[in-house]
Design a protein that fits this description.
Strand content: 25-35%
CATH architecture of the domain at 35-117: Beta Barrel
Radius of gyration: 40 Å
CATH topology of the domain at 35-117: OB fold (Dihydrolipoamide Acetyltransferase, E2P)
Number of strands: 10
Strand order of the largest sheet: 3-2-1-4-5
Shape: elongated
Order of helices and strands: HHEEEEEHEEEEEH
Distance between the termini: 172 Å
């Protein structure tokens, strides 16, 4: 076989290989461009997606993701019960994909997890700013056998252990406190995100009255025979 023919065959094989690679690349591109594959990757990666609520339906809301119609259950729109879903119409929110099924044309979204994460972060920031030793005002929100939970002015809650309610012995918090009582407390500790409070630390320490004892001078302590027999008549 001549050198020229070998060169032509090699060129043709290279062209075929190039075509095969190009087709494979195109297939990969088509897979990546498939919106169902995209939303599936969003679910796997936990991607936060900004969307607009474009419709309200029975039991939830509708938002579009990559051209697909996504359903947000009412229980996944907020951390609390929503009285009127219509208030969410055209509202911008952040969601994650939590369920994808192309065969059933199902795409389910949720905002709840993101809201929980934001709430937790905000709480951690508030607790980080709490200063041990500071005195604050709060309201008793619940009573337990072991103490009282007090809602503070900044929205945080702390526990006044039964041993920290008063200098006097308290058998049960219910004996001295009621839900809704406004109390002044001292922050005595913060550990693992929990705030310890004390009412006892703010009570004035009442000192027992000290009896004043007058000690006579040394020269007045001694007695003499004259003092002993003074006023005694001898027959």
């Amino acid at each position: 076989m001549s050198e020229e023919l070998l060169r032509e065959e090699t060129t043709e094989e290279a062209a075929v290989d190039s075509t095969v690679e190009t087709m494979a690349d195109l297939e990969d591109h088509f897979d990546d461009a498939n919106p169902w594959n995209l939303v599936a990757s969003y679910m796997e990666q936990g991607t936060v997606l900004p969307v607009k609520v474009e419709g309200i339906v029975n039991g939830g809301a509708i938002a579009m993701v990559e051209g697909l119609r996504g359903f947000i259950p009412a229980s996944r729109l907020s951390l609390s019960y929503i009285e009127d879903l219509e208030t969410y119409l055209l509202k911008d929110i952040e969601v994650r994909v939590i369920d994808v099924n192309q065969a059933e044309n199902r795409l389910v979204l949720s905002a709840r997890e993101i809201l929980k994460e934001k709430e937790k972060k905000a709480l951690e920031e508030k607790i980080a700013n709490v200063k041990v030793g500071s005195v604050v005002t709060g309201k008793v929100e619940t009573l337990q056998n072991y103490g009282a939970f007090v809602r503070l002015e900044d929205g945080l809650s702390g526990l006044v252990h039964v041993s920290q309610i008063s200098q006097k012995r308290v058998k049960s918090p219910q004996d001295v406190l009621n839900v809704g009582d406004e109390v002044q407390v001292k922050i005595i500790g913060v550990k693992d995100g929990k705030i310890s409070l004390s009412m006892k630390a703010l009570e004035e320490v009442k000192e027992e009255p000290v009896e004043k004892v007058v000690i006579p001078k040394s020269e007045s302590i001694g007695t003499s025979l004259g003092d002993l027999f003074k006023g005694i008549k001898l027959d």
